[in-house]
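Hi everyone,

Forwarding the result from last night's run.
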Amino acid sequence: MKEKNILVIGAGLAGIEASLLCARAGRKVFLIEKEPYFGGSVIKSEEVFPQMECATCMLAPKQSEVLENKNIELLTLSEVKEIKGEPGNFQVKILKKARYVSLVNCIGCAACFEPCPVSLDNEFEEGLSKRKAIYLACSGALPNVPAIDMKRCLRAKGEDCQACKEACMFDAIIYDDKDEELSVTVGSIIIATGFRLSDPGKFPDLGYKKFKNIFSAFEFERLRASNGPTSGEILTRDGNPPKSIAFIHCVGREEKGYCSQICCLYLTKFAHYALDKIPGVKVYQFYKELSIPGKGSQKFFQEVMKKGINLIRTEKLSISENGAGLRLTYEDNKTVDVDMVVLAPPVEPHPGAKEIAQLLKLEQEQFGFFKTTELNPIESNRPGIFIAGCAQGPNFMQDVILQAQAAAGAALHLTGS
């Protein structure tokens, strides 16, 4: 008899969408997420193109439904450690790591943050702000319950620090919390592990980390975010609004061997951010080729271009310092001086994709994304396991949702809809 439960690995947009569809059909869904929060890359964004909708307004209702839906068991700080069996009857072992904070007792008051003596770079904010050993990724992250980074906590160094516990009025801190191993049986599995952006430092001619006012795409996104490190103000690392910004397309395209597809439009969104927030700012976009598919995207691109963007096509580009600013040198030694540069690095598979592929015996294509069949972009090489969203390659948000819906439909059909 086929097991009707469904496992979804990755709780970003694709994983959330697939989980909700399966849960609404009456299925029990185990939604697995490695981070202490869920929502994936979308929750780093302030707005989404081409309609420039509020990203939080779009995603937060879906997140709330996940948390409230009795058919969905959300397991944050968790990962799959073993899988056996066959379609309709997969036996899965899941490692659920200790949070050290009670999901039941904590009310999200944040009183525990300030007393913590540890200060660390906040990875969620791309290192643009600091966090404590007990932390939330950002304001508004869900679940609204912090986790303790016990590897960085003073207690891990043998010190009897109880600062966060003493500050908590609700007895939510659990220093002796333990990792758990869960065993579940499911009929089908959906992989929705998403993507990451490549480290721009891999492309030394562009000066990332060498020159202070060169930013990665996600760094710039977080500058614009109202819950980000500057409360939505676009500032250089000196704390000043830039008078000119250069957005660089196609970073690392030759090295990677593929177009990441989404970069042209998110850099257009960034140009919109800059023109909207900084009066009189000069905006340059340097590109090799443009990828603007679809009528809605074309309209958005043209509307932003009309606001006065300098669009420069070039095959060669290098960046150097010029006094307090940055100088971009391109074809025939032409130059442009700006205060800020923003790089669009390649979209890559999530770092955990290789481990999951080995664990589940899934094939990866030449660029490291999960391989799908030629006629069906959600089918993996292993029956009963489906791929959704950017786990199978760079995708626009609309396509991510469609693939999640298709993967959910396939999972439901397999286990007997």
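Residues 128 and 192 are 27 Å apart (CA to CA).

Cheers,
N.
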